[in-house]
Amino acid sequence: MDKYDLLVVGGGINGVGIAADAAGRGLSVLLCEQQDLGWATSSSSSKLIHGGLRYLEQYEFRLVHHALAEREVLLKNAPHIIRPLRFRLPHRPHLRPAWMIRTGLFLYDHLASRVSLPASARVKMDEQSPLLPDIDTCFEYSDGWVDDARLVSLVAQQARNRGAVILPRTRCTAARRQNGVWRTELTDLSGQIREVCAQTLVNAAGPWVGRFLQDGVKEHTQNSIRLVQGSHIIVPRVNDQSYAYILQHTDGRIVFVIPYEQQFSLIGTTEVDYQGDPGKVQISQGEIDYLLGVVNSYFKVKLTAGQIVHSYSGVRPLLEDHHDSAGKVTRDYRFELSAESSGAPLLTVFGGKITTYRRLAQAAVNKLATYFPDMGRPWTATAALPGGDFEHLDSLIKALAGTWSWLDKKVLERYAKQYGSLTNALLAGCQSMADLGQHFGHGLYQKEVDYLCEQEWAVSTEDILWRRTKLGLYFSSAQRQQLHDYLPSRT
C-alpha cells in the first residue's frame, strides 16, 4: 500500500496550492480530484486577481490588504497568465457619492504596497465614450486579470515538479483513522479502487467540503459553508477599448464588463444562494436578464440574449457568516484541524478566493508544522509558476519569435500567453508548421493537443477547449467532433 505524508482531496486552486506548498517543503504528497483539475468553482470565476474594492464597504480591511499584497506576488510569479488590467468605475451620484468612491480608492491604493500598478485617478468622459451620455465621470484603478483554469493547471504542475502525485478523475470514496494514520480508498472513473495510507488528510473539496466530511470521513464540524451561485455571460465586445468596467447597480452589487479573448466581453457575476449538486449548476433566465439589464443601463450598445455566445456558472463555497445577502458573505477563509491522540490529523478548508490561494496554501501547511517538524520553510512567495520565469511578455514573445521564426504569429502569441517559456518544451523537435501535425482549427494543432494530454492531464474536448485553452469560443460543432475523434486514438 502506498504511503504519503499528505493526501489532499480536491483539485481546485486551494487543493493544488496546498499540494505544491507541501511538496516544496519536502513532504510526500498525493492529490486526488473527482473530475478534471479546476473543473468546478476554480474555472468559473470572473478571471480577476484583485483586492476586492467592494469588500471595503463591508469593512473587510484585513482581507483586502492580504489580497492586494497577493496581487503583486502573483503578477510577478505568473506574468504569462496574469496581467495588469485598468478598470473604470462610472460615477452615478445617486448610488455612491464621489467622496465615498475617492476614499475607497485611496484605501485601495495604500492598504498594501503597490509596486507594478498605477494609482487610481478621476477621468472625464467625452463623446467617444461607450457609456451613456449622462455619465460624464469615471474613476480609474488597476487590478489583475487571470486565466483561472490555467492557473490551476500551472500550480498542479508546480506541485508535480516538486514530487507530488496528481490524480485527476479519482474520488476519495472512504477514509478512516487506523493506528495513527489515514487509510483511504481512491476510486477512479472506471471503478478501479486504490488503497492509500496518509499521515495527514486535507479536505479542500470546495463546494463538496461538507459532503466529504459527512460521507467520506464521517465527522461533524462547527463550521459550515454557504453555496452561492455566480454566473457569467460572454458577448461580442461591447467596446473597443482596453478598459474593464465595474458597474454599480441599485441593489448595491457590482457587475464587471471585462475585455475577453480579443473579440469578446465577459460580464458577471451574479450572487444567488444555491441548493443542489454543485456539479450541475446552470445559469438561469433571471440571471441573464439581470446581467443584461445592468450593462444596458450604462452602455450605448444594447445587448440582447441572442448575442450571448457562451455562459458559465460556478458555485462558490463561502464561509457561512449568516448575512441575509449572499453578496455580503465574507470571502475570507478558515481552517478546522482535528486529530486523535495518536495523530492522523484532518485539516478542512472553508472558504477562500482565487486571489489568496497561495497565502491560504502556505497557512494551511503551516498549521501542520507540529506533525512535520522537519519540513522546510515557506517558499512559494518568490517562486515563478511553470513558464513564468521571465519579466516582460513582450520580450518573451520577441525571444520566442527568434527561436521559432516559422511559427504563425497569432499562434505564437497565444502560446506565450498560455504557456510562457514552456512554449519551448511544447515545440521541442519542430522545425516547420508541418511538424505541428493535424490542424483542428483556430490555431489548435496536434502537437499542442498531445502536449496538453501528456503534461497537463487533459483528456476530453472540454478539458482542452474550455479549461486549458479558450478556443471553445471559436470552434464549430464539426471541429469539436474532429478533436473528439482524435483523442481516443492517442491511447
SSE blueprint:
Elements: E1 2-9, H1 13-24, E2 29-32, E3 48-49, H2 61-77, E4 82-90, H3 98-110, E5 121-124, E6 137-146, H4 148-161, E7 165-167, E8 170-178, E9 181-188, E10 193-203, H5 209-216, E11 225-236, E12 244-248, E13 254-260, E14 264-268, E15 272-273, H6 285-296, E16 310-319, E17 333-340, E18 343-351, H7 357-366, H8 393-403, H9 409-419, H10 423-426, E19 439-441, E20 444-445, H11 446-455, H12 461-468, H13 477-490
Parallel strand pairs: 1-2, 1-10, 2-7, 4-12, 10-18
Antiparallel strand pairs: 3-6, 4-6, 5-6, 8-9, 9-10, 11-14, 11-15, 11-16, 12-13, 13-14, 17-18, 19-20
Helix pairs in contact: 1-4, 1-7, 8-9
Your description of this structure?
InterPro entries: DAO_C, DAO_C_sf, FAD-dep_OxRdtase, FAD/NAD-bd_sf, G3P_DH_FAD-dep. Its cofactor is FAD. Residues 380-476 form the Alpha-glycerophosphate oxidase C-terminal domain. Its EC number is 1.1.5.3. This is Glycerol-3-phosphate dehydrogenase. This protein is an alpha+beta fold and 491 residues long. The protein has three domains: 2-41 and 150-224 and 330-382, FAD/NAD(P)-binding domain; 84-144 and 226-316, 2-Layer Sandwich (D-Amino Acid Oxidase, Chain A, domain 2), CATH 3.30.9.10; 393-490, Alpha-glycerophosphate oxidase, cap domain (Helicase, Ruva Protein, domain 3, Orthogonal Bundle), CATH 1.10.8.870. The protein has 13 helices and 20 strands. Strands 3, 4, 5, 6, 11, 12, 13, 14, 15 and 16 form a ten-stranded mixed beta sheet that branches. A hairpin with a 4-residue loop joins β9 and β10 (193-203). α1 (13-24) crosses α7 and α8 packs across α9 (409-419). It is globular. The chain starts with a strand and ends with a helix. The relative contact order is 0.16. The model has no long low-confidence stretch (mean pLDDT 94).
